[in-house]
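Subject: for your reference before the review

Hello V.,

The reviewers asked for a structural picture of the protein, and I figured it would be easier to keep everything in one thread rather than splitting it across files. Below is the amino acid sequence we used in the manuscript, unchanged from the supplementary table.
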Amino acid sequence: MRITFINGLITTLLLTSTFSFAQTGHDHHEHPFVEDDFMLNETQKRLNPHLADKITAKEKELAEFTAAYIKAHENDASRNDESDYIIPVVFHVLHQNGPELLTDTEIHDAMRILNEDFQKRNADTSDVISAFQSIVGDARIEFRLAKRDPQGNPHSGIDRISSSRTFQAGESSKLNTWPRSTYLNVWIVNSIGSGAAGYTFLPSTAHWRASTDGIILLYTYFSSVRTGNERRSRALTHEIGHWLNLEHPWGGTNTPGLATNCNTDDGIFDTPLTVGWTSCNVNGSTCGSLDNVQNFMEYSYCSNMFTARQVLAMQATLNSPVAQRNQLVSFSNNKSAGVLDLHEAMFSTETPVACTGEMVQFQDDSYYDVTNWSWEFEGGNPSTSTEKNPQITYANPGSYKVKLTVRNKDGVTKTKTVENFIRINRSVGHFLPYSENFESYPDALVQVSWYPINEDNDNIYWRLGTGTGYSGDKYLMLENFDNLPYQVESVISDPIDLSNIKSPKLTFKVAHAEIPGQTASDIFRVFVSSDCGETWNLRQTHNGNTLADGKSESNAFFPTQASDWYEVTFQNFSGNDFTQNLMVRFEVEKRGGNNFFIDDINLTGSYDDVPVLEFPLNGMDSVSSDVFLDWKAVPYVTRYEYAVSEDAQFSASAFQGTKDYIDGTPNNDDTRFKPGNLTPGKTYYWRVRTHRGTFISDWSQVWSFTVSASGQGHEYIDGVNLSTSEVAAKDVFTQVKLYPNPATDEVNIQIEQSRNTELTVTLVDLKGQILLQEDLEDQNNLRVNTSHFETGIYFVLVNTGQGLITEKLIVR
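And here is what came back from the structure prediction:
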């Protein structure tokens, strides 16, 4: 059994000497790594002979302590109940206002990755090959951004420092070090003089370098977003492994791939001997046994695990006085760093834009140690929650506030309220042609059909502006001139119905200018979503130089004439884009350009001659025998032909006929048919096609539905009968009238009774979501505000207890 450590390598992820990203803004390719002897313990002993014996003594001390810790842990199962280790972190971001000036978003993403990796919560743990699944270790180490500085003042844990030492960085770039007994110091820089992507010293050397103890790392090897990427985002995990006394699996050199590496080792019993990897061959075997290529301490770029013994070694280091690591995780120092106190309530969601009826997952991000949660969701169902990460649905479109109050075990409470935090869109979008020039809206963008995403919660985001638009005096405006480098700002449309559209074409006008002397230009991207904003697909990218069309402005740019506007055409629609709730997202990434403006957004296309079926949904059961069949309109046809059959081949149609065309709007009576008296318990198939003169289109898709056994209802959602036979209610009611129908701002529901009885009126959408439910005791009329309803079809259900009358309501 190997129990000693061979102290050596401390640097990692070295790059080719041609590091071009910072200069050009283009991603570089990972390269076989270059050895950097400066960081090795043995090199430090040669460079500092007065420290050589001291470094060796600390190596021995920590090796012996680690061996004893591992032995005690193996012999004492109670040690499994030890508390998690909490490490306060401060990021010193050295910058010259370039892309290395990291945003809070990037830093929070890097913290997320660290905590997942060191707590075995990373999703790619499932990718570990079977040979090593049984030894994947959970270090139970939590990293928290410091919330107090060394003087005890409130702090974000993010220390941005303007300094030219961000370039060709080295030991002299480790500015403003916070005491290493209380904080893990991480310096983020633009470039490193040695060509490394990051480095640190093992504790035995760091013990004697308190003022520079910590990690130095390139900004491009930091997070998975913005200037980083998923492939390189584990560099900080790797470096912290070194900082906690782990070496590379091949031992104490910076050079993987050498055959002689089979003769050295990292001192960890369950990491096999290996020559080391710079590629991801998970079946690699270089020293007579299967290599642990997926180890976080490898160079393979597919790292996703620590071994159980590596975990014990890191925990041993955190219990050792070498380099004061044990003081760092002590209760008193955690308290000093502010990471044991509740500082603020925070929350987030990955879907700030969703559709009615869609589940929205909210997440508590409060700092720190919350034990109780009290959520309030304006317009949500449920409207309150005490869960940590609740799931909420919304029945009506609109922008809604979210409020969270959190409390810790000491009774400290913090509250945060964000107005218009979540945008709920229509589940059935605008029909074409769609046009938006922003002239008819007030001065708040959240009230129009384009919704800004302001993930950094600052003052720079897409908003409604007034000035010289392409048509009129209003437009979408992003004051990007003062934005941080690599910051991304997005704005998202309402849904648009492309479900029966051919050859859609999106055009819009952009006004933009470059800034003189800037070598990089902004990037403008167009995304689309076919699932209500849950996922987005990049479809088009534009360079800011192109959109500026020769314009350059040293100060903040604003359009002053029609020629300042540049037309962009987008036709890259495909596959799942042809849905009834397609959304478009415009995104700008700051690289060195000026303000952006958008106006005159138009989406056009020709309607497919083949209709799209709408209701009853395909496969629906328990449908009323008096159900209406609805389909989407096709403009400029002569008539619609429908067929309903008891078999999918339509060998004998139970109902067949035509509806004369009225117009192309989607809510007329020409796009629905009521078969009537369908057989209870039987399944029916139906389809529709169009006639245009002598031309007859193909049939639509064939949908099916099953009539309920009683023929009296469809148990749709939440126990609401969507439509049941009126027969049982005829001796009670005379008529239910809806006016106006179609409705725009409001609808009046008038009920004429043959005798007085209690009524329950329920309004549901096509998904069965209950939008309103009202008991009428002394009146037979109800007025409903529909101004916030999405365009589409709804059902009004009037219940006496003996049966239902169902009426279709159309909202435009």
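For the response letter, the relevant points are probably these. The CA atoms of residues 62 and 322 lie 7 Å apart. Residues 1-37, 77-82, 714-734 have pLDDT under 50 and may be disordered.

Happy to draft the paragraph if you're swamped.

O.
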